[in-house]
Write a structure and sequence with these properties.
With 348 residues, this protein is an alpha/beta fold. 41% of the residues lie in helices and 15% in strands. It has a domain at 3-189 and 227-251: Rossmann fold. The longest helix has 26 residues, at 98-123. Bound molecules: NADP nicotinamide-adenine-dinucleotide phosphate and ligand F7E. NADP nicotinamide-adenine-dinucleotide phosphate binds next to helix 1 and strand 5.
Length: 348
């Protein structure tokens, strides 16, 4: 049975990748962080009692800032494939916590590479690695961006991911390890964190529709992004590790839209005039912005046979339908006299 280890298993992508790999017959091991509140919401539906004879999902406490723990888990699990999805993944937050972001996203990757090199060196069993790179590494380089576009990161997050990218290339060349970088453009879903702009918009618009919220505060509406669905993007991660040779691939839809256009689409789907509800709050402007991202994923299509299935209209449809259901639940509770606040309200 193939065995995979996923860092960031509790995140958006980690949850879809776990579903994909379990469906393909893998045994899946995920790293989780200790928190004072529960942080496994996105994978709770996949949980199996580890004592059950047919259990195939196992969770381990570890952290990318703790190299000793990473090594111990690798030794214990002996995975065939490692997916490094763990990260401080919020660009705006990376300006507030640059050291921490560099530690987790840059050095954390190095810790994992060193642990893989050690374990593979001792056991001789090949461990393949997928590194979660990002279009934020292109930053200020104009679109369309492909594997040959120069990196020009515009945030501590982007810079830390560039470090991780180059480390993966170096470990591949220096030690002959099977390590691939995915350079993924923005991908969203019904499970997207609620402080990323698409989900912030769909959550707010659906709450406005049901009278639970009055306005939505946003930052730069002119930024252009190439938005796909996370379910399509985790398929690409798996495909990269099934190739004979490791390599680096851009994964994107090839279409871009402004944040304003995304807002318009979402509010129109709910028959609302967005201009009545959206206000600009400079708090959401970034010290340096990435103005335009649009990926050229022809290499992935040609070599991996990968193409996205979900376009932006279907993405909006799914996210709005999901969040409208959440808003209805909140409305029902409120109408029954319960005092409810949406989860994570204080961090939005
Ligand atoms: P996400 O929802 O923010 O999930 C991030 C995951 O990383 C969570 O499981 C989180 O754990 C974990 N994590 C954070 N700090 C960690 C640490 N110190 N040690 C171990 N794990 C840690 O991100 P995502 O959207 O799924 O993205 C997955 C990966 O792809 C990330 O590396 C991201 O930077 C990259 N990426 C994302 C996109 C995108 O558009 N979604 C595009 C390109 C690249 P908790 O649940 O405990 O916080
Ligand atoms: O911002 C603008 C903001 O935070 C998109 C991460 O997954 O994708 C993501 O990074 C755009 C930016 O995503 C608000 O200024 C306007 O131009 O949803 P976002 P991101 O920064 O593109 C990449 C590929 C990753 O790798 C990252 O991990 O929207 N924007 N108003 C806003 N953004 C937010 N968050 N909140 C606003 O109110």
């Amino acid at each position: 049975m193939p065995r995979a280890l996923i860092t960031g298993v509790t995140g958006q992508d980690g949850s879809y990748l776990t579903e994909l790999l379990l469906g393909l017959g893998y045994e899946v091991h995920g790293l989780i962080r200790r928190a004072s509140t529960f942080n496994t919401d996105r994978i709770d539906h996949l949980y199996q009692d580890p004592h059950a004879p047919d259990a195939r999902l196992f969770l381990h406490f570890a952290d990318l800032t703790d190299g000793t723990g990473l090594r111990q888990v690798l030794e214990e699990v002996q995975p065939h494939e490692v997916y490094n999805l763990g990260a401080q993944s919020h660009v705006a937050v990376s300006f507030k916590q640059p050291e921490y972001t560099a530690d987790v996203d840059g050095l954390g990757t190095l810790r994992l590479l060193e642990a893989i090199r050690d374990v593979q060196g001792r056991t001789s069993d090949v461990i393949r690695l997928y590194q979660a790179g990002t279009s934020e590494m292109f930053g200020g380089s104009p679109p369309p961006q492909s594997e040959t576009t120069p990196f020009y990161p515009r945030s501590p997050y982007g810079a830390a991911k560039v470090m991780a990218h180059h480390l993966v290339v170096n470990y591949r060349e220096a030690y002959g390890l099977h390590m691939s970088n995915g350079i993924l453009f923005n991908h969203e879903s019904e499970r997207r964190g609620e402080t990323f702009v698409t989900r912030k918009i769909t959550r707010a618009a659906t709450r406005i529709k049901l009278g639970l919220q009055e306005v939505l505060y946003l930052g730069n509406l002119d930024a252009e992004r190439d938005w796909g669905h996370a379910e399509d993007y985790v398929r690409a991660m798996h495909l990269m590790l099934q190739q004979d040779e490791p390599d680096d691939y851009v994964i994107a839809t090839g279409e871009s839209h402004t944040v304003r256009a995304f807002v318009e689409r979402v509010f129109a789907a709910l028959e609302l005039d967005w201009e009545r509800y959206v206000r600009i709050d400079p708090r959401y402007h970034r010290p340096t912005e990435v103005d335009a991202l649009r990926g050229d994923a022809r290499k992935a299509t040609e070599r991996l046979g990968w193409t996205p299935v979900v376009g932006v209209d279907e993405l909006v449809r799914r996210m709005v339908a999901n969040d409208l259901e959440l808003a209805h639940q909140e409305r029902t509770l409120r109408d029954a006299g319960h005092v409810v606040a949406p989860r994570g309200l204080a961090s939005a």
